[in-house]
């Protein structure tokens, strides 16, 4: 084998390796987008249940109006959020206010016994579980992608083709407490 053929073989090998790295970035980015879409669907499902929950609770005149207003406000912020950070903050806020709403419901036996309320609470509990699962999956893909963005020699491809670090969908401390204390309904 001549020197020219060896050089050509090395160049083809390097270019092939760079193409593989680029394609892995594209694949991870597509995975992140798909995982985010899963979270977005679950958040939308949760936001869609809030009006029915508020209507059910509003039927109890003595119920704390301030808590309901916070739930409505948190839902609206979630619907208006654009970036991942804004959506995460809104989701965290809504989870916290829903936790307070369900905790206050304990003081109202008629409300706790209302089948619509129990059904909505059960649906929200299932959606919360789905959001947590989707969040874990999304954050795992983001972790792999971000590690690749900062790994040698992949970081050169990342810089050249503008593959930038992605944000995690984080669970803040207040949401973690609310999720852990949110009542589970066994029917």
- One letter per element, helices H and strands E, the order comes to HHHHHHH
What proportion strand? under 5%
Principal-axis shape equals rod-shaped
Number of domains: 1
Provide an overview of this structure:
This protein is rod-shaped. It has one domain (3-181): Up-down Bundle (de novo design (two linked rop proteins)), CATH 1.20.1440. It has helices spanning 3-58, 65-80, 84-105, 109-113, 115-149, 154-160, 173-181. The chain has 187 residues and is mainly α. Residues 178-187 have low confidence and may be disordered.
Question: Which properties best describe this structure?
Answer:
de novo design (two linked rop proteins), 7 helices, mainly alpha, 0% strand
Please outline what is shown here.
It contains seven helices and no strands.
Topology (SSEs and partners):
Elements (H helix, E strand, L loop, with lengths): L2 H56 L6 H16 L3 H22 L3 H5 L1 H35 L4 H7 L12 H9 L6
């Amino acid at each position: 084998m001549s020197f020219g053929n060896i050089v050509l073989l090395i160049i083809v090998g390097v270019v092939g390796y760079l193409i593989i790295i680029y394609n892995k970035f594209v694949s991870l980015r597509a995975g992140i987008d798909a995982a985010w879409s899963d979270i977005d669907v679950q958040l939308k499902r949760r936001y869609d249940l809030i009006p029915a929950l508020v209507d059910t609770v509003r039927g109890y005149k003595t119920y704390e109006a301030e808590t309901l207003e916070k739930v409505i406000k948190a839902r609206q912020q979630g619907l208006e959020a654009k970036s991942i950070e804004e959506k995460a903050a809104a989701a965290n806020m809504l989870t916290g206010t829903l936790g307070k709403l369900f905790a206050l419901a304990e003081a109202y036996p008629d409300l706790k016994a209302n089948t619509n309320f129990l059904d909505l609470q059960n649906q929200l509990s299932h959606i919360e579980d789905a959001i947590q699962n989707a969040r874990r999956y999304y954050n795992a893909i983001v972790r792999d992608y971000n590690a690749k963005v900062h790994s040698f020699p992949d970081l050169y491809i990342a810089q050249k083709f503008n593959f930038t670090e992605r944000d995690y969908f984080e669970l803040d401390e207040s949401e973690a407490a609310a999720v852990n204390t949110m009542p589970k309904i066994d029917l």
